[in-house]
Specification:
CATH superfamily of the largest domain: P-loop containing nucleotide triphosphate hydrolases
Number of strands: 8
Bound molecules: guanosine-5'-diphosphate
CATH topology of the largest domain: Rossmann fold
Strand content: 5-15%
Order of helices and strands: HHHHHEHEHEHEHEHEHEEH
Number of domains: 2
Mean pLDDT: 91
Structural class: alpha/beta
Radius of gyration: 21 Å
Shape: elongated
Distance between the termini: 16 Å
Helix content: 40-55%
Length: 293
């Protein structure tokens, strides 16, 4: 069932052992906070979780290690937000795919394309990262393998124009999904934000929500840096859902909880490998299990 566990064993065991010792063991709450932080949960949220447990435990509501553990599991579970971003109907749809370079944006686009092609949809790409020639080439390779159309122009072209072309084309056909790539050069943040906002305006002039979705890719191994990345893109455009890529790594996924809780952005998918089939809807239970291990 949990395919990624077979690939790479995630570190863990700390929280399980801690609960066996119980809340009266020395430094229990501090150790719990440390263990949650170790699982990539933001310190303030780890503290919030341990405070909730302390309050309920002191009020005499919980006693057995199993009750304590399941209380924390429920608290964590409620903090993780999820959303289904698969297309709801057969109408045209555009997905703007955002994220910092290297997080797995183009791979995730190919995975989504495969997923929706398998569901019988017509899918095409727009090569909106015109800043890096390699990004266009890479997307073209995926398009070739998947046998789908890619809208592209030369390096340095206006990304809004490339995406506009793709949009016009799917609109003319009346059905189809456009997955549009974007640049992710965080070293020039303000210029990037301006570029993304222009793309957003162009798309909005053509289509309305919910046919227009903004998906952000966050690498599960980036640690707390991922929160800042999410904040930048969310402030610039508003993010509908996140793909947590590289979840097959040793990362335990607390980053998803931190982003959900801090920014209120839901998680849509998780990337569980490099193959086109290695994407699945975000499974909050699996995430809670890996944090609580
Ligand atoms: P981009 O720069 O954001 O477009 O990143 P790429 O799509 O080129 O991905 C960067 C690297 O991460 C590539 O080697 C991908 O194969 C790898 N990658 C992407 N998603 C995943 C994932 O879910 N799991 C693993 N293990 N590797 C991934």
């Amino acid at each position: 069932m949990f395919k990624w566990f077979r690939k790479k064993q995630k570190p863990g065991g700390l929280i399980r052992r801690l609960f066996q010792l119980g809340p009266h063991s020395e430094g229990f709450y501090e150790k719990l906070e440390d263990a949650l932080i170790e699982a990539d949960i933001k310190a303030s949220i780890a503290m919030e979780i341990s405070d909730e447990l302390r309050n309920s435990s002191q009020a005499g509501k919980l006693s057995s290690p199993e009750e304590l553990r399941s209380f924390v599991r429920d608290v964590i579970s409620q903090m993780i937000l999820t959303v289904n971003l698969d297309p709801e109907n057969n109408d045209n749809a555009i997905y703007l795919v955002l994220g910092v370079n290297g997080v797995g944006k183009t791979t995730s686009m190919a995975k989504l394309a495969r997923r929706w092609l398998d569901a019988g949809r017509s899918v095409s790409f727009a090569a909106g990262d015109t800043f890096r020639a390699a990004a266009v080439d890479q997307l073209a390779v995926h398009a070739g393998r998947l046998g789908i159309k890619i809208f592209q122009q030369g390096q340095g072209a206006d990304p809004s124009a490339v995406i506009f072309d793709g949009l016009e084309s799917i609109k003319a056909k009346g059905e189809g999904i456009l997955l549009a790539d974007t640049a992710g050069r965080m070293h020039n943040k303000s210029q990037l934000v301006k570029e993304l906002q222009k793309i957003d305006r162009v798309i909005r002039s053509k289509v309305d929500d919910p046919s227009y979705r903004r998906i952000l890719v966050i690498d599960a191994t980036t640690g707390q840096n991922g929160i800042q990345q999410a904040e930048v893109f969310h402030q610039a455009l508003g993010i509908d859902g996140i793909i947590l890529s590289k979840y097959d790594s040793r990362a335990r996924g607390g980053l998803a909880l931190s982003i959900s809780r801090t920014l209120g952005i839901p998680f849509a998918y998780m990337g569980t490998g490099e193959g086109y089939g290695d994407i699945s809807p975000m499974d909050p239970e699996a995430l809670v299990e890996s944090i609580m291990s």
